[in-house]
Amino acid sequence: MVGCGNLLRGDDGVGPVLVRHLWERGVPEGARLVDGGTAGMDVAFQMRGAQRVVIIDAAATGSAPGTVFKVPGEELADLPPLQGLHTHSFRWDHAIAFARWALGEDCPTDIAVYLIEVAGVELGADLSEPVEAAMELVIDRIEAEYLADLRPAPETEVTVEFTADGYLRLDAALAASRFPSDAVVAVVRDGDLWLIPLRGPRSGGLLLKQRNPAGDRSLLIREVIEGRVGVTGAFWDDAQKSLRIPLREGPHDAPEPPG
Predict the structure, then answer these.
(1) What is the pTM for the complete model shown?
(2) Which class in CATH covers the domain with range 2-150?
(3) What does the similarity note say (predicted)?
């Protein structure tokens, strides 16, 4: 995933901002995020050897702000010659043409471009509301079309461990499939400990800390577990989008999922 644009010029920075949001959500193994900025020629070389490439950039076509265009890479096969181009006028479409010329067989054949129509590109401005809303839509599409298949398959019934030093431990597969951003809210409700995933650290909440090289995660919740130690069952509540860990049962009892 490559986000192109100028962060200093309002909606023109939507590509790099989108890449930052994806990074906060957690990047699965096999995916790579690149802040392409305004360096189009560097973007071309970042494509080397990739199987699939998604480029996100701003557009100024005169359409309504926030309009999203998806351009298949194969439609950009016949572009104007590169003669006369220089780094200050190098755009995403030039980057694709240059990559085909410079990388040869190492240039990916599956390239898609998402363009988001800008409302304004004033120096120092934030993203406008329509562009920010469109960015969220594109994030959801990228997650569904490109990233979801790279994440571990989530399980409904799992086990977690309460440790003697007051931590809750989640194994790597559970953390990666349900809490890819490592940011959570932990709350006791109806006799269960609920772990609710957040979109990223900027959303607040607590951070899951990496426990070992295998990627297991741990969360300090000594105030909640009240001396509980051991492995216990948990289940994913899809309606509430949270992991529920019953506290009324023994640490080795597996709960029955709802329904």
Answers:
(1) 0.74
(2) alpha beta
(3) Belongs to the peptidase A31 family.
